[in-house]
Amino acid sequence: MAVRIARHSSTSSFRSRARTRTGSNVSARGGQTRKVMLDSLGLAIQKRDVTRVMAMLNGDTAAFNLRDAVGIALESDLLDIATKIADMVGQGPIDVLKKASSIGCFSAVVELLKDDSLPVEGMSHCIVTAARKNHVNIVKAFLLDARSDPSACNNFLIRWAAQIGSLDTVRLLLKDTRVNIHANDHAPFLMAARHGHIDVMRLLLVHKGEGDSFGRNEQAFLVACQKGQLEVVRWLMDTCNLDPSCQNGRAVQMACTSQNEELVKFLLSDDRVDPSSLGNSALVSAVNLGCVEIAKMLLSDSRVTVSGVESKIFDEVAKRGSRDMATLLLGLGVDDEIAVSTFITACRVSNFEVVKVLLDLELVDPSCREQAGFKLVCENGSVDLVRLLLQDERVQPGRADNESIVTACTQLKTDVVRVLMEDGRCNPGARNNLGICAASEKGADELVELLLADPRVDPSEHNNYCLDGAVSSGSLATVRIILKDPRVAPNGKNNLPLRSAVSKGYKAIVELLLEDPRVDPTACVEPALKNAPQEILEILALLPQVQHAVAKFWRDPKLRIMFKKLHRDMVQQAVECARIACPVAKKLELELNTDLAAKIISFAFGNDLIVNHSDIKLARTNALISDVLCKVNK
Length: 634
Hints:
Number of strands: 0
Helix content: 55-70%
Number of helices: 40
Keywords: ANK repeat, Repeat
Shape: flat
Region (Disordered): 1-29
Oligomer: single chain
Distance between the termini: 99 Å
Pfam families: Ank_2
């Protein structure tokens, strides 16, 4: 008769549980295959077909292993099947017990523990595994078995029980003399303090031993402060008569780290606590974490000052401080140099609130250090800060040869450039139109269009550098915008833009440039023959100017060979297309030699070197080829 057992905890289907066990690193296709195979395995187990199960486990394409099969059997309340499967591959009840301990099958564990033949050495592994998986009832079941060693793995169980606050488990463990509550430097007591389990701490203190002492009460106190465990702190101070100023007053600083306002308030209510200890480290921690209320509590004590820690505090305020924190600390009054440094840092990280507080309190001149702050916000693209600083008449955006707008252009901060141009005090064409040159070579079409709206910006500066840069960037939109300006000469420097576009293979830009009558396509024939991609060559080959220009290259043997190869490749493409497009092309190729047929087909398509699939062209080609065939047959 099958042994059917109730599971300790509710479980999902065996397929989903098995999927969880194997992790999520399986590919989508592999995952689907595994689902199907696990379904089949589960059905075989439910039908108690052990032979089928073993066949599936031994298959070459098995997507699971013995642990999967045993786990599914346990989750299906079939302990006898799980044991039988394990036995058939040479494993015993202890291996089934390990699996049951891991997946939380409480009743299976209880049933298996009735077996007196279980090896003692395997029990420790099982109980630790159950503890690591937080199966409390299973751990308790093991502890009731005399064969279990509760001190296994360097007293792992007492540390684990103290951490989760399982008072009953701790009591069971303390009944065994092998358990050492002082193991790992009093770790159980510290674990309980860290997680706020006062009952466990009280129990551990009772069992600490005659004449023994934890010697870690202060450490537990600091750990509790760090984790914000107010009740643990109260209990330790009352029970262990702890001085809250122990270890140089670190407690208040660690309490600030926990961000527990009530805990900080409680500690500060004790006259023995000095909130300025360790160089006002408590205030530094509160500021670093943005705890405004805690900072207020600390500053209400006359012993707490920012003296000596200004750089730490105000640097942190500038980087991450809120408006409230900045108002609180800056309102105390600061040295001019500290105020300037805070302002510059806040501008660098775009902290609007801190900059606003500094300006509202009139602690800093926004044009300090040669407008370094304004330059930084322009560089960072902080539009709100740019607008804020421009409201102050001391900020002159056109200073240093319009450095601000030039910087914004080079960093592609379009919105900042727009604000500066609206302000009207900047010249966007400054420094020989450096701004639009930088924007063009980076393909920033929106910024280029914005700059060209100002007549002071000349895109033809530096011998049409803007167009050259836009072509090099491969930005079709930018090239199109620049070409609209009549001052730009697309044929400059021997048609450099076209030659550059051809060499880089920018087909769309080549087509755009060729639309301009000023552009001479023959200027790019030689570089095109050398390294242009096929699609560019096809565009150029259709141009009459290029076809005439090719003739002059016949004098160069290398170019002649190169062009012949190109022509041969394109003619071959024409032949291939003609086989489909022209009904008589195949017949022509059969009756004539291939080279002659290719020449005729190429000639039939006129000046095109590739097949043009227009109806008119095809009709003309068919007529010409048919005429040739008639003459050949005669």
